[in-house]
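Notes to self after the call with IL:
- keep both proteins in one doc
- input above output, always
- annotate only the second one for now

Protein 1:
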Amino acid sequence: MTLRAFLFFALGTASLALAEADMFKPSPAQQVELGKRAADDLRKREKVLPSSDPRVRLVRRIGQKLVKTFKDDKPWQFSFDVIESKQVNAFALPGGPTFIYTGLLDKLKSEDELAGIMGHELTHVRKEHWAYAYRDSQEHQLGLTVLLMVFRANSNVANIASISNDLIFNLPFSRKHESEADTGGLHMMIDAKYNPQGMVDAFQLLANLAGKGAPPEFLSDHPSDTRRIKAMQSQIDGMKQSFPPSTPLRLDRAGYSAVLTPLWIR
């Protein structure tokens, strides 16, 4: 076999092994470790509300209802916290730590809207979107030499010690991942007995806020457009089924909640 033929053979063989190995993708256990580290850092820098705050109890109650619908056996460790801030934002870190900002809570009108946003975020965790985005970024930046693929294709070379917290917070998701999170969030809401229309309403609210000036921080990581909102609505309409009424939500600045007259949405 000539050297050229060997290289082509090695390249093809290693590429197949690489596709199976996901050598740059952090494992679920590594994702949990990274998420915990970043969450600990965030708690030192931001004003995280205590467990006794009604807003925290609300977010954790909804979060637990969503988590109870899961049937997978991945080692995710979900936690739910609220940050006192005017930012209109929410996100979930790799492995499960989830944060909701009071600036977002102040804008929402129903528990279903909050459940939709949280379901979207939890789907990012369950589908390992951050880990796949990290893998893709590493393959793009570093490239893959023939020798690396031949001799290390079956190894996981993700070095989590070298991954900065900034990268954990700021690595963007692909359009495909966002669409997958939309669909996963809708079905998660339905399984948890929420009205999925709340998710459409939440994203429409965020899109309306973006149209009035600087977009909410949430949209900087989760680009929202008319097509995505229409796609969500189309999925709901296609289900041709009735859903529970939405649960209205009002949180004042002191954190106290009040249940309003039931609001029905399709």
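Protein 2 (the one to annotate):
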Amino acid sequence: MLKPLLPDRHPTPDFFICDIFDATPKGDMASMEHPIFSLSTKPDLRPRHYEHNGISISIKPSSDGLATVHDRDILIFCISHLVRAINAGLEPSPIVRFNASELLKSTNRMTTGRGYELLKSALERLRGTTISTNIITGGKEVFDTFGLIERARVVRETRDGRMQEIEVKLSDWVFNAIRAQEVLTLHRDYFRLRKPLERRIYELARKHCGHQRDWRISLGLLKKKCGSGSTSFEFKRLIGVIIAEDIEHDHMPDYALRFSEDETQVVFTNRGTVGQVLEKVVIEPLDPDIYDTARVLAPGWDVRMIEAEWRSWATEKPKNAESAFLGFCRKWYEKRGAP
């Protein structure tokens, strides 16, 4: 019998890509909240429409099918590294270039020829899936139509056809969410969950339960938020299987789950691991001389106030705090101008 979690395919990272593994997995809140990705493991050619609390989303597949929950790994990889760059004080770009093997290893995928083929197919589905929505990202509500990525380009390829360097340009919608820090940290075992439905319900628990002791949701609303095409009876059965396996193996990251007493709701209970991942970032005092440079980068602003904003905003401790702070000051002024 298969264990609920996939094996850790790369338990010992290569020395030269340790930084890749150190980048904490991040997901954007909008697609964690709403059913953007297909749960199917086969080509899903069904257009879908979702409405909830004033949010409207239409999702249309290409001839390759809708982007899947597993295709989302590529976005998580890109988001994680852009957030890390921002925290280090670097200017983010919607264009992300990376080594294919780095992505495969950090998302617990196979590095065989088949793994590269699946990666290429995932990029095609991400590019081909079209979203029309009024979801707000980065404080902007615009009814827009876009792909999850604007393009994907194989920059270098080996003689045997394996991809080496890949360049992905994220959509403005995803990039706006990153710049606004509308992201949440994900447990690394997210990439070891076998079932697309398990990944989806983890995302929802991470978004809604967060640091709370528990969170409950009706089966009907959970089915809607998962984007499941199953009947209500079948959906309840599938959730019941996950609950039974979690009771036996404790395999669901961060949150345990069970049915309510009347079995009309699913109750998620915080395992206490989220706080360990997201504890408050403590950044050492800055070099006093750095404030003169900060005043040049953000003229007219109270740089101590900007520093307080930067410290509350940081999700990871930067390697160079001074450089990260100066980068934040520069972006602060570019976005707001003179006070």
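Annotation: The longest strand covers residues 149-157. Confidence is low (pLDDT under 50) at residues 15-21.
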